[in-house]
Design a protein that fits this description.
Elements: E1 2-15, E2 27-31, H1 44-60, E3 68-70, H2 72-83, H3 88-98, H4 103-117, E4 124-134, H5 142-150, E5 155-159, H6 164-178, E6 196-209, E7 220-227, E8 230-248, E9 253-259, E10 265-272, H7 278-286, H8 291-296, E11 299-308, E12 310-317, H9 318-324, E13 348-350, E14 354-361, E15 365-367, E16 377-378, E17 385-388, E18 393-401, E19 404-413
Parallel strand pairs: 1-2, 1-15, 4-5, 11-17
Antiparallel strand pairs: 1-6, 1-13, 1-14, 2-6, 2-13, 3-19, 4-6, 6-15, 7-8, 8-9, 8-11, 9-10, 10-18, 12-14, 14-15, 16-17, 18-19
GO molecular function: serine-type endopeptidase inhibitor activity
Keywords: Protease inhibitor, Serine protease inhibitor
InterPro entries: Serpin_dom (IPR023796), Serpin_fam (IPR000215), Serpin_sf (IPR036186), Serpin_sf_1 (IPR042178), Serpin_sf_2 (IPR042185)
Length: 422
Amino acid sequence: MKCKIDEQRILVIDRFMPSMWILCTILLLFATSETNSNITNMDSKAFSSAIAHFSSKFCVELEKGKSVVSSPLSAEYLLALLALGTTDRAHEELLTSLGFPDDDSIRSSFLEASTKLKSISGVTFNVANKVYLPEGAYDLQEEIKNDAIKVFDAGIEKLDFSNGAAAADTINKWVEGKTNNRIKDLLSADSLDISTRIVLVNALYFKGTWKKQFDPIHTRNLPFHITSNSTVDVPMMYKEDDYRYGDSEELKAQLLEIPYVGDEASMLIVLPHDIEGLEDVLAKLAGGYDLMAEYDNMYSTKVQVTLPKFKIETEIDLGVVLRKLGIQAIFNRGGSGITKMLNTNEELYVSKAVQKAFIEVNEEGAEAAAATAMKALRLRESFGIEFICNQPILVMISHIRKKMHMPIIIATYKGDCNEDYW
C-alpha cells in the first residue's frame, strides 16, 4: 500500500487596500498605507508533543460531516516563520497556539526537524518552503532572511506582482513540481496584484509503501457506517499479520499502527468504540490528551485488518481555522504585529490563508492521510484481534525515530470520496 501526501500552504502579505489576498500554506501579506539570545533547546519529544497537540486542535476545527485531509505541520512551517517576524499580541498568539516558549525554541526545533525530515528512510518525503517578494528594492529584514534560509531552508524569489496572472502561474508551477503534480491551481489569476508584498508557500509531499502490503485479491465492497442508521458500500482491503495494537479506555478507541518500508514512517489509525464516536475522540485530543502516551502502551500482536481504500482532496480556509485556534492579530489591517518581515515601514497583514491537500490509500500504500474506523471485535484467540474500519476514523501519518512520533498528515475518513474506485 502506498501513501502519498501533497499539501500546500501560502501566506500572502499586502498593503492596506480594499482587495484580498491568499495564504495557502499560502500566506499572502499585504502592506497597509500606514506607516540574539542563547538558543532555548526544546527536546524532540516536547517538539513532537507540541506538533501533535496543535494537529489535534487543528483537525477538530475542520469541516464536520465529510472526509478531510490536512497537514498541520505544513501550516506550522509558515506560522513559525511568521512568528519570528511579529511582535506584541500577534507574537504571543502564535507562540501560544503553536506551543513554543520563545523564538529560539522555534529556531532550534525547526532546524532539527528540517534535517531529520530530509532523511526519512524507505519513503519519499519532501518539504519545500518558498518566499516570494516584489521586484525592486523590497527585501526581507536581515534576521528573518537568515532564519528563512538557515532554519526553514526556504528559497527566495522576486516576481512582478503587478502581473498577477503571470506571478500566480509561476507559483502554481513551483507547487506542482514540489507535489508530484498533485496540487494544482493553488492561486487564482486574480489573487495577486501590485499591493502584494510577500507570498509564503510551503509544499509537502509524501509517498510510502506499506512494509506489509495488502493483496488486491482480498479487496471487496463492504458496508461502511456513515452513522448508526446509515451505511454505504466502500472498497475494503484485508490483511492478517502482526501489528502494533492498543485499546484505550480513556479515548474509547482502538489503535493500530501500520508501518511503511524503512520503519521510519507509519500510519496510526484511531478507531472509536462507537460508530459515532469520532468527534468525541477528536475533542479529547484537542483538549490536550496525550496520544503519544497511548502509543507507548501499544504492543505487537496478530490482527485481522479491514481498511477502506479511498482518495480525499481538501481545500481549507486557514483564515477561519486559525482564528478559532486563537491566531487573530495577523489578520488585522491595523496592528497586525507583522513588523519584522520587510525592509520597509509598511505595516503588513495576512488577508487570507488557504491549504490544499490530497491523499490516496490503496493496497500498496497511502497518498496523504485520511481514514475510517469501526469497533474492533475479538475472535477466538487463535485468530487474533479483528480491526474493522467500517465507520468514521482518524488517521495520522508520522515520522518515527527512537519512539518519537512527528505527525505529518492527519485525516478523517467518513465513507465518502470513493467514486474513483467503483
